[in-house]
Amino acid sequence: xxxxxxxxxxxxxxxxxxxxxxxxxxxxxxxxxxxxxxxxxxxxxxxxxxxxxxxxxxxxxxxxxxxxxxxxxxxxxxxxxxxxxxxxxxxxxxxxxxxxxxxxxxxxxxxxxxxxxxxxxxxxxxxxxxxxxxxxxxxxxxxxxxxxxxxxxxxxxxxxxxxxxxxxxxxxxxxxxxxxxxxxxxxxxxxxxxxxxxxxxxxxxxxxxxxxxxxxxxxxxxxxxxxxxxxxxxxxxxxxxxxxxxxxxxxxxxxxxxxxxxxxxxxxxxxxxxxxxxxxxxxxxxxxxxx
Length: 291
Fold this sequence. Notes:
Belongs to the TfdA dioxygenase family. Keywords: Dioxygenase, Iron, Metal-binding, Oxidoreductase. InterPro entries: AtsK-like, TauD-like_sf, TauD/TfdA-like. Residues 14-279 form the TauD/TfdA-like domain. The structure is a single chain. Helix content is 22%, strand content 27%. By secondary structure, the chain is α+β, with helices and mostly antiparallel strands. The chain has one domain (3-282): Double-stranded beta-helix, CATH 3.60.130. Strands 1-2-3-4-16-6-18-5 form an 8-stranded mixed sheet. A 3-stranded antiparallel sheet has the order 15-7-17. The longest helix has 15 residues, at 222-236. The radius of gyration is 18 Å and the shape is globular.
């Protein structure tokens, strides 16, 4: 069953992937899309949170050009350099170089201004396996019980990139990372974000902690922090909050980093998997108490 979304005078043909979020965009060539079509995609991204495009012909140049039409691009990653000198915006996730994402996370939440969204392109795929899962953080928040929502609304969490990228920054990059928000990243200072993020475009609330980068809750004991985070992680990743994408050659995925978390299955053994990702510059997360 397909549906359409009207934005900027363009109707996109969408196939919903679940009752609440995720959609496949049918028949749109991202390499030749008009400005109106790109605007419709941008609107659909906020509404559906994760979009999939089959049979695309984008290369690295095309992926960067598409990203620039949607928003302002960041460097590939605060710590990891671009895929090559010509494409400093592209982050290569290469399984041959420990490029895995098999922990639930939201991209780059360990920086004060995490990316708005990400665009991921399949470059090399294993014969089987390597699916990616997305969780809807807003649906997860809405389905919490009222007392737990009220508690989460008041909490702040610390996000720390050192656990995942501190060694890489020090050993692989010699203590000098990418230029992020106008400054060269030389260390990964932990940052604080609200546990519940208010989406700046829709006003909806979503769970904004993740096992990949969140270290602890501020102002509570270690035991309380672990208990609260474990509860939120388990709830966020319930099956009814998730859509799963089985990759094919030519696939492109696009997601809203402000309302989702994701996880890439590492179930393909020694087969090779390479994905190229770009990210769109975002804003400083705001919680319910800061508005």
